[in-house]
């Protein structure tokens, strides 16, 4: 970085990129201009810090870039919106190798494209730690935003996407196990690049949608707890519906608890929603519990024993799984 | 931070805040929803890193928060757009005192309000350095964006706002001079909280606007250089029009060069624009040069001797003023 400088690296990052149709004016001016055909836009921002949210010895720059976009795109989709564009501020040490930066950029662009958008602009500054700050935008297409507050007693709780596999991948990486073992491949891949099932939400056009929706970023119980609090309801999760024999096999080989990964792991960026009773769930969704009157989240009718998920600064207090996110 | 944890501090930061009218859904869900009445929105993002863009022993948390918003709002206004909302991702060490965070938040909110918007959401994570990543949004009100590429030979170059005072403040702080000296008060205040003259652009309704516009963030010559390159023109700046006797007095007392602060200092976040010849400049704007055929930026017809402004990672190469931004 020190040799090329900010402007040359920015040129390198942006060379040959094609902006999504929503990006009316891309990088190179004081600001970008993005289409908001709906007259509103949805926005979410997340910061990823080296050593805390990712490690360069555990993931490639491309994987880190993809993960940074995926977790933000999942927030946009969790509002029922279609991702349109992203901006990315990047802080990095002066001795960062340029291929790290171009790899990150490639990952950012790959996942932005997968989510339906592009990287419309950014900032590149000098910092001691590698820090990636992504802001994501989406369009609601004239529909109401699907918030966390619409769940009603009697609704079915359903999930789209995998749960626990990212936590399993982190456990594998932390364990010193043989990373080349085929049994660990899916867990490692999921931890390195979560694959939010965008289509499970975005293809709902014409179907009956969820009454409330969130992405599972902090942990299933934690995120359902936020949803329950916002909606003024209680949620009970059925552990049998969450069982995953393949994940259980990984857990056994590490002497770990798959149920804890499923209930308190979060970085898979699955979607959790509530649906009016009697709704036939659309493709990709599976029932995992019910909404009742009251407050809080229970598992099979009882208070969860382990932690419920991730909270920054207090990580160790709430994540007995040892997640470092 | 460690004692309260992420969620309690977020509650503390957001308590009692009133969102601007453009913010349709504020913090607390997966994402925020912002009005874009124009069917487009303008977006800019900047990252500020402790020790590089600010120092807690040189500025209060409130001042740092204000500066973080001001420099982003200036980018929005420099497109001819009216700021509507901001999102802020904050990384901070676990031993950060909570009043630092609440002070930052107060500063963010104060300047957001001054610029016409509010803080619609954010992220709070654990990092080794204090890092503030602001993304700003604006609405063009049906007008075309004013880019850097519209300058034409024969246009007048004009500036709104002060130049060099932020660089002077940094020089005062770096010099070990008596910070309480009244002669330094304005320089220090400007460095700590730049005051972009938003109204000089936003009140142009009905007036003939600039053909090209930018904010002065990297340094006057550097930013005019970007504008000249984007427009395919040359810019000549008249040093006599930039002279500032008050700033010269500060420079003399530090044995520094006021002209260099004016030409290569940037963080005042003044606005520089080009106007068709014969336009009567609106209030707040003063002519400082002319646009010609060719390329590059000259001062009184000759190549500038000193540096032209700031570039991350290569700071020392291009800023003989010793700016640490």
TrEMBL record, chains A, B:
Mg(2+) 3 binds at residues 30, 75, 215. Keywords: ATP-binding, Kinase, Magnesium, Metal-binding, Nucleotide-binding, Thiamine biosynthesis, Transferase. Substrate binds at residues 53, 267, 310. It is an enzyme of class 2 (transferase). InterPro entries: PurM-like_C_dom (IPR010918), PurM-like_C_sf (IPR036676), PurM-like_N (IPR016188), PurM-like_N_sf (IPR036921), ThiL-like (IPR006283). Mg(2+) 1 binds at residues 45-46, 123. Residues 152-244 form the PurM-like C-terminal domain. One of its GO terms (molecular function) is ATP binding. Its EC number is 2.7.4.16. Pathway: Cofactor biosynthesis; thiamine diphosphate biosynthesis; thiamine diphosphate from thiamine phosphate: step 1/1. Catalyzes the ATP-dependent phosphorylation of thiamine-monophosphate (TMP) to form thiamine-pyrophosphate (TPP), the active form of vitamin B1. Belongs to the thiamine-monophosphate kinase family. This is Thiamine-monophosphate kinase.
